[in-house]
Write a structure and sequence with these properties.
single chain, 564 residues, alpha/beta, 7-stranded mixed beta sheet, 6-stranded antiparallel beta sheet, binds zinc ion
Length: 564
């Protein structure tokens, strides 16, 4: 240890990362606190542990391995007991041809490598990694990895406030670690899928499921039991689907979780949905809406009555848009009521009603009841039948501002859908203020973005000019889990009910005719908004092509449909 510190001090001085004055005060700190040079440098915020690791790798002439960039196999934790890994600050990365690659904070620590060589009964090849990252990886992998073979399980230092009372039990620690990871990785759902051979753990991040290393299959039933206890479900019932919810705190945030179990031949399949808090609500601009759209929406929701519709498939961000609108309208002077299935986010002052099939509380009859409660603004989670459509439009005509959603592919699709529900054109025209259609596309990771030349396929699909530029993609880095994307942004089209549009609706014109007319009057289609965002490097053309139909502009009725 001493040796390494001397080498390190010299290297830091030579590299100019430290001057003699700073070194003196860091040394004083080390003595006062009883810590080593590295901890003293980090604690005094003189250098980051990563900077130090890079210098050390140089000094010790061993390769530096960036642990944030990849996920080592947790099964290797069986080779080295947790207590040894923690004491020696090392982590068993991988085993190839009988040689164990060991991530170490101090590769010159021969006592440690000897000890591990004996325990693991194999050759050891040391590489250097960031001390903080080794500690974090050790905490995570030993909680989620196989229950350790040697040594006694120790109290695990998981920095979460989740069920801290008995975090020493492997199952509890594994559940806590899964939840903490999901929050850190901004996952919206956790899927726990057992099959005959293993327990698959997947997180949905930015709308895409990502496979994670899960605990061993032998821990599956214990984990399900623990989650059932948290969600107050029936522990003895394993053959019937169950739903429940629980709440946990992590990193100062309260997270509500909806839990659902379904029995499969290989055991209970569990899906946990992590619900965001109301505080995290943004304004329209932050959702990626262009300024003209924001003013159209603000104009629509400032009306005393009428209906604003948001359309798109499940997972297209409709609820977030509606809540953002409610957030703008929400003040104690207004009576706001919602009917939802399920109530995803709780808002202050807003009276939220959960649809329940079991007690016959449908969207339609809940809506009828709340209209007797004198609301100013009503949010109907979804219109999916004639009855709800009729009552919702009637209430929009009788002095209420109604916000709701429809499952249609595009904005004009809402007109056809309302006609299908048997509503006459004049009712649609009098009630509907506008229709917003939207999809979510992934944002290019800002940490690893790089210029991305347009491929011929995309050039043809989007009918781009030869010199089109500005496009970016992510190369993949530790921050974005190697996906090249981080976070999502909406792409939008808004059909305002202008006199011209109303005229076409009144005449019973087709969706195509109404769309062409609206485009002629300046409506920007969803894919055009997406293309604009791709040109600005916010997303990629591939993302836009995945979610939005690309329609030929200026060729009425003639359009090439892509995957919708
Ligand atoms: Zn990245």
């Amino acid at each position: 240890m001493l040796n390494q510190d001397v080498f390190l001090e010299r290297a830091l001085l030579e590299e100019g990362l430290l001057d003699h004055g700073q070194l003196e005060s860091v040394r004083r700190h080390a003595v006062e606190k009883g810590v080593d040079l590295v901890d003293a440098l980090v604690q005094t915020e003189t250098l980051t542990s990563r900077q130090i690791a890079l210098i050390k790798a140089d000094v010790c002439e061993v390769p530096f391995v960036e642990l944030a960039d990849y996920e080592p196999c947790y099964a290797n934790t069986a080779l080295v007991p947790r207590s040894v890994a923690e004491r020696q600050c090392c982590f068993p990365l991988f085993m190839i041809d009988g040689v164990l690659t060991l991530a170490m904070d101090d590769p010159l620590n021969l006592e440690a490598t000897d000890q591990i060589r004996q325990i693991a009964k194999c050759e050891v090849d040391a590489v250097l990694s960031d001390r903080e990252q080794i500690k974090a990886l050790t905490a995570k992998a030993y909680s989620l990895g196989h229950v350790q073979a040697g040594g006694t399980p120790q109290a695990q230092a998981i920095e979460t406030e989740i069920g801290a009372e008995d975090a020493s039990q492997p199952v509890v620690a594994a559940v806590n670690q899964m939840l903490a990871d999901a929050v850190q990785q901004r996952a919206s759902d956790i899927h726990i899928n057992p099959d005959e051979h293993e327990m698959h753990l997947r997180y949905r991040v930015d709308g895409v499921l990502q496979e994670k290393q899960g605990p061993a299959l032998s821990m599956h039933s214990g984990i399900v039991q623990r989650l059932k206890v948290m969600a107050q479900l029936d522990l003895t019932q394993t053959r019937r689907p169950q739903d429940g919810k629980f709440r946990f705190r992590h990193g100062g945030k309260t997270i509500d979780v909806r839990m659902s179990t379904v029995p499969t031949v290989c055991g209970e399949n569990v899906v946990l949905r992590l619900l965001t808090n109301a505080q995290t609500f943004q304004d329209f601009h932050e959702l990626g809406m262009p300024a003209t759209l924001v003013s159209s929406l603000e104009e629509a929701i400032s009306r005393p009555y009428g209906m604003l519709l948001v359309t798109g498939p499940t997972g297209s961000g409709k609820t977030t848009t509606l809540y953002t609108a409610l957030g703008r309208l929400n003040d104690p002077s207004r009576n706001i009521m919602t009917i939802e299935d399920p109530v995803e986010i709780r808002l202050p002052y807003v009276r939220q009603i959960q649809v329940s099939q079991e007690i016959g509380l449908t969207f339609a009859n809940a809506l009828r009841s709340i209209l007797r409660q004198d609301p100013d603004i009503v949010l109907v989670g979804e219109i999916r039948d004639n009855e709800t459509a009729t009552i919702a439009l009637q209430s929009a005509l009788t002095g209420h501002l109604v916000l709701s959603t429809l499952h249609t592919n595009d904005a004009v699709g809402a007109v056809s859908r309302l006609r299908d529900y048997g509503l006459p054109s004049f009712v649609i025209n009098s009630a509907v203020l506008g229709v917003l259609a939207q999809r979510l596309v992934r944002r290019v990771c800002s940490h690893c973005r790089t210029p991305d030349p347009v491929t011929d396929t995309m050039r043809r699909r989007f009918d781009l000019e030869e010199a089109a530029e500005g496009f970016m993609r992510g190369k993949g880095c530790g921050r974005c889990g190697q996906t090249g994307y981080r976070g999502r942004v909406g792409i939008y089209e808004y059909l305002g009910f202008s006199p011209e549009v109303k005229h076409e609706v009144e005449r019973g014109s087709s969706a195509e005719t109404i769309r062409d007319l609206a485009v002629h009057h300046g409506m920007r289609l969803m894919w055009q908004d997406g293309l604009e965002k791709a040109r600005l490097g916010q997303t990629t053309l591939e993302e836009v092509a995945k979610v939005a139909s690309v329609l030929a502009i200026g060729a009425p009725g003639k359009h090439q449909r892509q995957a919708a």
